[in-house]
Structures are given as structure tokens and as C-alpha cells.
Design brief:
single chain; alpha+beta; Helix Hairpins; endopeptidase fold (from Nostoc punctiforme); 2 domains; 6-stranded antiparallel β-sheet; 8% strand; elongated; disordered N terminus
């Protein structure tokens, strides 16, 4: 699914349907209220975004697994080369032993030697060569064992990569199915209904923002860190670019793709998905927000935006929309995290 504007496409579809005249023989369903339409749309969008973040998490694990497969393949190749060298050393020693198999033993040479001290010195050399042979054989055995272990590990890593790739394909199909559900619902709405839903949504967000401000949950803005300032400037530069699920820029973004890319550009890599950002970054109260902090939404942490100050966030909202600056209370707030703070040691109290 690309970042096309779903609403525009659906408006066109409605217009096209207007020139057609199929009248179903079944009874028309009862019309839904604007409030119910908004609820249904928000539910579908939320399901689509949750599926997107699941897909993103698998994509990140697949990328790491591909790197692990490459690393193990490299180690296995080096182990095979080392094994060839060890086998060459062992063969050389075997030939030497065969060629010297008719020699007297070191003990017999000592008894028959005219110069016992010289014979003892020779015995020392023979002992050293014997130890070298033992070390060569031990190295050969160890290299063979390492080769076998690496081969098994590489096989397991490849199997895991294939499993993740299959899971990713299924999750991709799930995202597409969720977005198709959104499109089907939008296609049933008239332009008047779409306008009414949009107005109701703006009113609901404004009321939620006023309630959040009146509750005292938001404090005075704190100055951003150097990294936070760079992340905010990068995110704001993306305003107007389309939302596209699974995208991390530079031409389009999904919600966590925008926040992770902005902080990467600021010099602080953070987890890719909103759930991992919520789980692994330091949590901060809303009243202590500073620009660059991330605001996480919904109980499942399936949406994320970046705080820019004055009670506003920059975010990639959802399919069909563009990166925009909007009120912090655009969605139900779960809490906030700070990318350039220490990792969270224990869950903080969630802000609602």
C-alpha cells in the first residue's frame, strides 16, 4: 500500500459511483451517525497502525538476522581455511613420522651415544617436535569442531531468517487487508459525511487538548537538549511528506519511521517501532516534556509522535495523511519517553 491520499481516492470513487445506478434488492442498512462513523474509522486506522508496527518489528528482526547469517557465513569460511592449513600441517608431520619410522628410539640413542650430552640435547629437540605434533593434532581437532559448530549455527540462523521472512510476508498482507477495510468504509461515505466526520474529529481533539491543559498534566516547556533540537528540526523539515506504512524516509514515513529517523539524524539511534521506543527508552512525565521527547499513544503503544513545544507534536498521523504539526492530544496519550536519557529501569506511571 503506497502513501496515496486515501480520502481523495475514495471521494473520486464516490463520484464515480454516483453515475452508476445499481439499486440492490435488499433493504438498506440503517444509517450510522457521524459519531459512529468516526469511531469505526478510528478503530480501523488503529488496527492498521498496530499491524504496521508489528510488521516493522519483524522487518527490524529480519535485518538483524540477515546480518547474523552474513557474520556466521564469514566465520565459517575462515574456519574452513584454517582447517585446510591444519590438515596441511598434520599431513606434513605424518610424512615426517613415516620417513623417520626406522630411527632408533631416543632412549636407545642415548645408551649408544658416544657423547651422552649431545644425545640428551637431541632428545630435547625430539621432545619439542613431539609436542609440536601433539599441538598440531589438537589444533586440527579443535578447528574441525569449530567448523562443525559454526556450520550448525549458520544453518540455524538461515532457518530463522527464512521463518522471519515468511512471517513478514504474512504481516504485510495483514497490513494491506486492514488498509483495504479503511478504504471500503471511506468509499461508502458521501463528501458531506466525510466533512462531518473530519469536523467532529477536530472538535474532539480540541476538547481533549483543553482537558489535558486544564488538568495541569502539561508543564512549562523545558529547553531541548542539543540532540533533541536537531531531531525536532529534522522532523519539522519533513512536514508535508506523505504517510506510508513501513517507511523511514526520506520521501515518506510512518509514525515510528519519522521519530526513529529524526533521532538517528540527530546522532542518537533509537528502536524502530513505537512499542520498542516505549519499552526501552527513559520515561518522563508529561509535565517535564522538552522538545525532542516522544509522546506514545494507545494502551498498546501503537502510535508515536515527537513533542515540539507549546503543547504540540509533529507526527506522521495515518494512511492518507501527511506529516504535520498537531495538538499533543490528537490520540489517547499513554505516556512520554526521552531518547537521549538513560534507559528505563522500571515502568513509570502512565499518563492518561
Amino acid at each position: 500500500m503506497s502513501g496515496v491520499l486515501v480520502r481523495l481516492a475514495c471521494t473520486a470513487a464516490v463520484a464515480a459511483q454516483a453515475v452508476l445506478a445499481p439499486v440492490p434488492a435488499v433493504a438498506e442498512p440503517a444509517p450510522r451517525s457521524v459519531s459512529q462513523l468516526l469511531t469505526d474509522l478510528q478503530r480501523l486506522y488503529r488496527q492498521a497502525e498496530q499491524a504496521t508496527e508489528t510488521y516493522n518489528a519483524t522487518a527490524e528482526r529480519l535485518q538483524r538476522q540477515q546480518a547474523e547469517v552474513a557474520r556466521l557465513d564469514g566465520e565459517l569460511a575462515r574456519a574452513r581455511l584454517a582447517l585446510q592449513g591444519s590438515r596441511g600441517d598434520a599431513g606434513r608431520l605424518a610424512r615426517q613420522q613415516y620417513q623417520g619410522s626406522s630411527d632408533f628410539s631416543a632412549y636407545l640413542r642415548l645408551l649408544l651415544a658416544r657423547d651422552p650430552q649431545h644425545a640428551l640435547d637431541e632428545g630435547h629437540v625430539i621432545g619439542r617436535l613431539s609436542r609440536e605434533r601433539a599441538e598440531t593434532m589438537a589444533r586440527l581437532t579443535g578447528t574441525e569442531r569449530k567448523r562443525d559448530e559454526l556450520a550448525r549455527a549458520a544453518r540455524r540462523a538461515l532457518d530463522a531468517r527464512l521463518t522471519l521472512a515468511g512471517r513478514q510476508r504474512k504481516q504485510r498482507d495483514d497490513v494491506r487487508a486492514r488498509l483495504a477495510d479503511v478504504e471500503r468504509l471511506l468509499a461508502t461515505l458521501t463528501p458531506e459525511q466525510l466533512g462531518a466526520v473530519a469536523r467532529l474529529e477536530r472538535t474532539s481533539v480540541a476538547e481533549a487538548q483543553r482537558g489535558l491543559t486544564a488538568s495541569g498534566a502539561l508543564g512549562d516547556d523545558r529547553p531541548p537538549s542539543g540532540g533533541g533540537d536537531r531531531a525536532v528540526r529534522y522532523a519539522l523539515d519533513q512536514v508535508g511528506k506523505p504517510y506510508r506504512w513501513g517507511a523511514q524516509g526520506p520521501d515518506s514515513f510512518d509514525c515510528s519511521g519519522l521519530t526513529s529517523r529524526a533521532w538517528q539524524q540527530a546522532g542518537t539511534p533509537i528502536p524502530r517501532t513505537s512499542q520498542e521506543q516505549w519499552a526501552r527508552l527513559k520515561r518522563v512525565p508529561l509535565r517535564e516534556l522538552r522538545p525532542g521527547d516522544l509522546v506514545v499513544y494507545f494502551p498498546e503503544a501503537t502510535h508515536v509522535a515527537m513533542y515540539v513545544g507549546d503543547g504540540e507534536v509533529v507526527q506522521a498521523p495515518r494512511p492518507g495523511e501527511k506529516v504535520e504539526v498537531s495538538p499533543l492530544a490528537s490520540y489517547p496519550v499513554l505516556g512520554a519517553v526521552r531518547p537521549d536519557g538513560a534507559a528505563a529501569q522500571a515502568p513509570a506511571t502512565e499518563a492518561r
